[in-house]
Amino acid sequence: MRKHNEQSYKNDRFEIQINILNFRLNSSEASGAKAELNRPDQPKKLTVPIASLDHDLNSDELLFAVDTSTPAAELTWSCSRCTLVNEASASACAACAGSKPTAQSFWSCSSCTLRNPMSANLCLACKTPPVPKHAVPTDNHVAAAGRSPSPRRGARGTPALPRRGSRHKTPPPDAKPETTEWPCSECTYMNSASAISCEMCQSPKTRLLPAAPDQPSLDDDDSPEGSDGERQESTPMEILRLREESHAWTQWQEVLAQCAATGEMYVDESFPASARSLYYNGAGESGAAARWLRPHQIHVDADHRLPWAVFRDPRPSDISQGVLGNCWLLSALAVLAERSALVRSVVVRAEPERGAYQLRLCKDGRWLTLTLDDQLPCNKKGHLVYSQAKRKQLWVPLIEKAVAKLHGCYEALVSGRAIEGLCTLTGAPCESVSLQAGGAGGAGGAAGGAPLEQLDRDLVWAQLLSSRQACFLMGASCGGGNMKVDEEEYQRLGLRPRHAYSVLDVVELTDSHPPVRLLRLRNPWGHYTWRGAAAWPELLRRQLPACSADRDQGVFWISFEDVLRYFDCIDICKVRAGWHEVRLAGILPPMSSTRHLTCLLLTATQPTEVDFTLFQEGQRNSAKSQRSQLDLCVVVFRTKSGPSAQVGKLVAHSKRQVRGFVGCHKMLEKGFYLVVCLAFNHWHTGLELADSSAWPRHVLAAHSSKPLAVERPSLHPHILADAIIGLTLARGQRHEGRQGMTAYYLTKSKKT
Questions:
Q1: What pLDDT shows up at residue 642?
Q2: Could you tell me if 492 and 582 are in contact, meaning their C-beta atoms sit under 8 angstroms apart?
Q3: The pLDDT value given to residue 452
Q4: Predicted local distance difference test score (pLDDT) of residue 457
C-alpha cells in the first residue's frame, strides 16, 4: 500500500493512474491494447491529454488513449508482483525485478484483475476468491465496479475535453449480486468492506461534503448530517474543489445547450433582473437601479474602444465602489487582488458570448458554485449603479452579483466586516487580531464590568511577523470598531477612518537603535496615503527606497506604533496549499438535546496543526435591524475513543463572541479529541417551544496540515453541561461569594 504525504499527493495520484492502467490492461477486455503496447515492431506510446490530467482527478475512466489492435498475448507476460506488462523475451520484470511466471502459476482476480499466485486462496489486493474454471466472468466487471461517470471540467473558460468512450456499452445481462466490497470513488479499486480508506490510493470510503444547491439541506431533516459512528476523513483541498465543482457541471452544460438551441443570451431566472433581486421587500429608492444591462450596453465614460473582459491584469486600484455600502466586501476583494491568481480562482467558468458565468464562493462555511448571467443594475444613463472595475473589467461586478445572489439581494450586502469578505472569497480560516485593549477586532469589551484585557504588543507583533512569513493575506481596519475617531486628525495624516488597507509587508529593522517595526500598507483607492512619516530619520528613509516611489499607487510605510494608534484590528486570511479540510453541518439547539447537539470525535494519527471555524448560517437573510447573531464558541477537549466519548482536559477554544463565525488554532498531538459547538444567547428566547426547523444551523470547518478522521460519537446526556463546566473552570474568572461557595463565570470576548 502506497504511503502518501501532502507535498507529493499529486505525483502519487499520477502513479496510481498508471497502476490502474496496468490493472485494466491485465483484464480480458483490454488484452488487445496490452498486446499492442508490447509489440516489438511498434513503438510503445501513451497519449496523455495534459488538460484532462490537470483538471479531472475524479474520472472513473482512464486518462490515457491507448492504440489497440489484434491481440498478441503470447508476446507479453504480466508481473505477478506489480502487474507491469513485460516483453516475452524478458526473464524478469523491468519495474520490480520479479521473476517471469511459469505456465499455470497464477490466476486473475475477477474484481480487480490482479494476477495472484496459484497458492493464494483469496486475491491479495481485494480479498476476492478465485472464479471456478467452469464459471465465465463477464467482460463488464470493471465497469460495474466503478462509479457512474462524473462530469469532467476542462480548463477555465474552455469546454471540457470529450470523454473517451468505452468499447462495452451493453450492461451485464444479470443483476449484480450483493457484495460486501466497495469501489473507490477516485480510482475505482475494489476494497474490502472493513477498509475505511482505499487500499490503493488512500481516498476515504465516504466524505461529508457541503450540500450542493440541488441537494437536500438540513432544513429537510431535524438530524444533522451523518449518523452516530459514521467515520469520515478530511480531504486535500485541491481534490475537494474538483469534486465540489462537478456538482455544477450538469447545470453548466444545460445552460450552454439551452443558449445554443435558442440562439439567445443566458438569463438567470433564479436571480432575475427585477427589484426583488435588489431589495429585501422588492422595493427601494426609485431611480437607483432603473434598468439591467449587458456589458456591451453599459455606458463607460473612458475607454470607449476597449472591449469588455472578465480579467485584464486585475489590480486592487481597479475597484470602484458604487452606491451600495458594501466596503467590507470590496476591501476584502482588494486584499485578494494583491495576488491575481486568487481572484481568478473565484471565477470557475465563463462564456462571455453567452453571458453565462460560474463562480465559487463560501457562504456561512459552505462551498457553493453559482451560475449567473451578466445583466447588471444600471441607472437611466446606462452607468453601473454598484461596484465596478476600471479598464472595462467584469470581475468586480460579477463577484458582487454572485455574493448578492448568495444572500438573496443586493441590499443584503450592506454593512459588514472585511474578515467576512475574505472568508467568503477564499473559504480559508480567518483570524482577527485586535490592536486595542480589551477588543476583539472592534467588538465590544468584556461583559459584567470586568476590566479590559491589556494588549500584548510583542505578541501581536510576533503574530504579524509569522503571518507574513507564511504568506497569509492581511488587511488592516482603520478607525473602526469602538475607536474614538478625530476626523480632522485622520484627514491631516492621510488616513481614511472606517476603511480597510492591504498589508503588503511586515519588517523589523534591527540596524536601528532601538529596532524599528514597520508595516507596508496600500490604500485600495490608489491615492490618499499616510503623511505622518515626515519626521523619520534620513537613515531610515534610505533603508526604505520604495517608500516615496510607491505613493502614486497608494503604498506607504507606517510604524507599528502608529498602526496601534490609528487602526483597530488586522484581519489574517490563512490561504494555504496542500492542506486538508472537512466541513460538517449541524444544529445549535436551544435545549440540551443530544439528538441535535453537534459533537465530533477527531482522531489524529500524527501531530497535526488544525484550524477550527464555527459558522452560524443565514445571517444576511434579513435586514440588518432584524439580524440576531448568536453568542458562539467552539471548544476542543481531550477524550478517549469508545462508544461514548466524554469530556476530558481542555485543549483549545475560541473566544466567546457574538459574531458570524469564531475560530481557534491548535497543534494537536496524536490522540483523540472531542469538539463541541456551543451557542449561549438563544436558550431562553422561546425557540424551544417552536418547531425545530426554526432552530439555528451551523457549519464547522476543520483545516489541518495532516489527514484527520472524523466521526459523530454516541453522546452522553450531560455532554453539553460537562463541556460548559469544563470550559468555565479552565478559562473563566473565579469569584468568592458566600462562605463555602465559589462562583466561576466566563465573559464575552474572553481571550482563550
A1: 67
A2: no
A3: 56
A4: 92
Indicate the Cα dihedral angle 470, 368, 223, 674, nearest 10°: -10
| H-type alpha helices, 41-102 | 50-55
Whole-angstrom Cα Rg for the chain: 30
One of 141, 247, 407, 499 is an active-site residue; which one?
Answer: 499
Q: In this structure, what C-alpha cell is assigned to residue 364?
A: 456561512
Closest CA to 339 of 54, 580, 6, 573: 573
Sign (positive/negative) of CA torsion 322, 325, 331, 337?
A: negative
Whether the CB-CB separation of 478 and 485 falls below 8 Å is answered with no
- Helices and strands (H, E) in the chain, number of each type: 16, 33
What is the model's pLDDT at position 230? 62
User: Is the CB of residue 700 less than 8 Å from the CB of residue 612?
Assistant: yes
Which residues are paired to 115 by β-bridges? 108
Please give the model's pTM, rounded to 2 decimal places: 0.68
Q: Measured between alpha carbons, how far is 385 from 162 in angstroms, rounded to an integer? A: 41
**Helix 395-407 to helix 418-426 angle, to the nearest 10 degrees?**
100
The H-assigned helical ranges of 389-446 are 395-407, 418-426
Could you give the residue ranges of the DSSP H alpha helices within 408-553? Answer: 418-426, 457-469, 487-492, 538-543, 546-549
Q: What distances in angstroms separate CA 618 from CA 96, 365, 600, one per listed residue?
A: 56, 11, 23
Burial class from Cβ neighbours inside 10 Å (0-12, 13-18, 19+) for residue 686 reads: exposed
DSSP 266: -
Cis before 171 (ω within 30): no
First vs last C-alpha separation in the chain: 41
Q: Identify the active-site residue in 523, 569, 633, 653.
A: 523
Please give the pLDDT value at position 43: 40
Q: Are 7 and 578 in contact (CB under 8 A)?
A: yes
**By C-alpha distance, which of 411, 385, 401, 388 is closest to 289?**
385
Catalytic-role residue among 327, 478, 599, 633:
327
Cis preceding-peptide flag for 149 (omega within 30 of 0) = no
- Assess whether 499 carries a catalytic annotation: yes
Cell, residue 126: 481485494
At residue 421, φ and ψ (nearest 5 deg) are -65, -40
303: exposed, middle or buried (C-beta count within 10 Å: 0-12, 13-18, 19+)?
exposed
Question: What is the model's pLDDT at position 624?
Answer: 63
Output the pLDDT for position 59: 31
Separation CA 421–CA 336 (nearest Å): 10
Q: Domains of the chain, with CATH numbers? A: 1-159+178-203 (no CATH), 249-419 (no CATH), 430-446+454-573 (3.90.70.10), 580-745 (2.60.120.380)
In this structure, which amino acid lies at residue 96? C
**Mean pLDDT per 10-residue run, the chain (752 residues)?**
44 42 40 40 37 32 33 60 73 72 65 72 77 45 36 38 35 45 65 68 48 34 44 82 80 92 94 91 67 93 87 91 89 92 94 95 92 94 92 96 94 90 95 80 37 81 95 92 87 89 89 84 83 66 60 82 94 94 85 72 94 89 70 92 82 90 95 91 58 80 93 81 89 81 73 44
Confidence (pLDDT) at 202: 56
